[in-house]
Amino acid sequence: MLNKEQQEKIFSSIGKELKKPMQVYAIGGTSMMLRGAKENTLDIDLVFLNSDDRKIFLEAVGNLGFKNENAIKVYGLKENVPLMVNVLEGRIDLFLEKIITSTFSDNMKKRANETHEFGTNLLIKPADLNDVLIMKSATSRAKDEDDIVSIINKSQINWDVILEEVQSQIKLGNQLAIIGLEEVLERIHNKKFAPVPKSVLDSLWVLLNKQINEKSGKEKKEHKLKSLTV
Amino acid sequence: MRISKYDKLAEALEGFNRVESLQDKLKINRQRAIFLMHKLRALGYVKTYYGANNKRIYYISKRNKERGISYTSVLNKYAPTAGIRILDNDNYFVHGRDITPEELMIYCLKQNSIRYVIASLILFRKIKDWSLLYKLAKKENAVNKIIALYEVARKSVRKIRKMPKRFYNLARKEKKFYYIVEPYSSRDFGEIEKKWRTYIPLNIADLTEYKEGV
Hints:
- The complex is a heterodimer of chains A (230) and B (214).
- Chain A is an alpha+beta fold.
- Chain A contains 10 helices and 11 strands.
- Chain A has 2 domains: 127 residues, Beta Polymerase, domain 2; 102 residues.
- In chain A, a hairpin with a 2-residue loop joins strand 6 and strand 7.
- Chain A starts with a strand and ends with a helix.
- Chain B is mainly α and 214 residues long.
- Chain B has 2 domains: 66 residues, Arc Repressor Mutant, subunit A, CATH 1.10.10; 147 residues, no CATH class.
- Chain B contains 12 helices and 7 strands.
- The interface between A and B is medium-sized, with 18 and 13 residues.
């Protein structure tokens, strides 16, 4: 576990070690900590927009004496796995635009409107908490559900943004975005852990049905085309 | 009380408070309430705002500590009167180092806001590293703007340090006039404007706070 002081120390020393200024996005627990919604995190998740920056960052972390970790051990053989480095009592995951199944979309970048400067060369933009909620719903870990509950309870969630973003995630190829979010929110609503408006759950249900119909329609069309060509 | 206890206290008192409300909530006397506020402020949990009649309102939040320091909060620290302070809506936070008055001066110029220009004048009292200020100003093509504002500050704010002559000598002789905040120019500082080819977005009346407070 990394607490706020440890996280700040790590970022500041990396910022001083970096050869050039760079901007990265923080997601997950790191974003929540920078936005004051969480006390500590297991791992620091950072999203880079280009591989050169990620390489330079990795070099700087290496110079500080931290060692790389094998991502397959943690994520298995999934796509878009991060490069990983072990630091103190935690880990830094370095993603490149895509986070396993989710994509750090242009709208997510726009909503990440805060900038935190560490050691002059490292600028970290924490993702908006609405987006953190969506990304956390894509995993099936119990601690992520706790984080979602804490986000809903502690900050002002804009449900319109969430419904909009979840649809754009589908367009970007994350087919499980709606079903993942719907499942988690339904559970939180039923167990009364946090207030989730009924209208949001209904809208998600409608979106899910739409997605299923579109997909089955496509499959039928493809099947028809195949049978015609045969 | 250990730091973790103050952490809990900050969480319990989250929101706007006054010394009196703190007394009520914690059932303590005024002296103890002021001491607790002082401790919480030292740990970074408190932001102070000023209400009617300059009464202090304290915003206690754990987020204040976590967010690092913003340029506007440092600028507000230097402000001599409440009227000069600016509402802190910054989205840029610095961790692990102090923001220097030289950096702050350039930040104020970049905001393109008259309020920031007014608040920045007091910074000339704090600037020690003139060469750093020159370097930063040159990068932003704002050397003449800095000199023009310095001359305004010399006229309206007391106890302003002398700018090294080298700074003046390094200023470029411009033909074109530049705006600090477009499209505003000055009725009262016309001479300075002509001399440094920079339109100053201030008149003497805008600087009365300095006359009263400093």
